[in-house]
Amino acid sequence: MKTKINYFAIITFFTIAISLRYLSNKTTILDNVNSEFIKVILQAVGPAIGAIVAFLIFKIKPKLTLKGNYKNLIIPFILYWIFPIILILTVEYFTKGTFSIIPIFAILIYGLLEEIGWRGFLQHELRSLPKLLNIIIVAILWFIWHLNFEMSSGNILFFGILVLASWGIGKVADSTQSFLAVSAFHSLNNFFPEMNTTKIIILLVLVGTWVILLIDRKKRNQKKEASL
User: Fold this and answer.
1) Predicted pLDDT of residue 117
2) Buried b (16+ CB within 10 A) or exposed e, 61-86
3) Which InterPro entries match (predicted)?
4) Are 173 and 182 contacting, i.e. CB atoms less than 8 angstroms apart?
């Protein structure tokens, strides 16, 4: 039986998400906030608050959690947050002699707040739609939320990235059910805004490791289910 889509919940979610995005990015409301860390977090809080309000008002049970379908919280935390932080900081130290741990945590938390909305709420709420249509709708609303409507090749490319990200991060969400996992994959592009050879290698190591672990875990789960 197909699950009925709650369009009022989606409208509520997106209205809150884009309104808070407008306030944080298009007005001077954050000008007096001295902490760059807080500013970054507030710019991403809209999807999270929109999703939480929709969950509460429409009595929708979230499918994703921090722990996901892992046995405990520490496993996804180490795998998807601690591991990339250590790798990135190690390379940064040997190439620049600095540690940017606060900006890296800000990027991960930024991704987490977004993903509570996009994968935690919207993708799941649209689950009864054909997969491609689900992906396109999520990507369109995600693109609009960024409030950058300039008709340029860069924006067209950005929309294409959001479509691919909606598909890829959606796969991670389905596989892990973990906000820590999806936020880590979400944050990959923000970790490396300007790519060079070293950063590409780090990115490939991170993605390769995560994909191998996800595939291995899926195979073990399938064997476990087959033995029951």
Assistant:
1) 97
2) eebbeebbebeeeeebbebbbebbbe
3) MmRce1-like (IPR042150), Rce1/LyrA-like_dom (IPR003675)
4) yes
Would 87 be classed as within a structural domain? yes
Whether residue 148 is contained in a domain is answered as yes
The residue range of the domain holding 100 is 64-227
Residue 146 lies in a domain: yes
Counted domains in the chain: 1
Quote the CA–CA distance of 228 and 219 in Å, as a whole number.
Answer: 15
Q: Taking a C-beta distance cutoff of 8 angstroms, is the pair 179, 115 a contact?
A: yes
Confidence check: pLDDT of 99 > 90: no
CB-CB neighbours of 60 under 10 Å? 16
Between the alpha carbon of residue 79 and those of residues 110, 176, 178, 188, 206, the distances in Å are 18, 12, 11, 14, 10
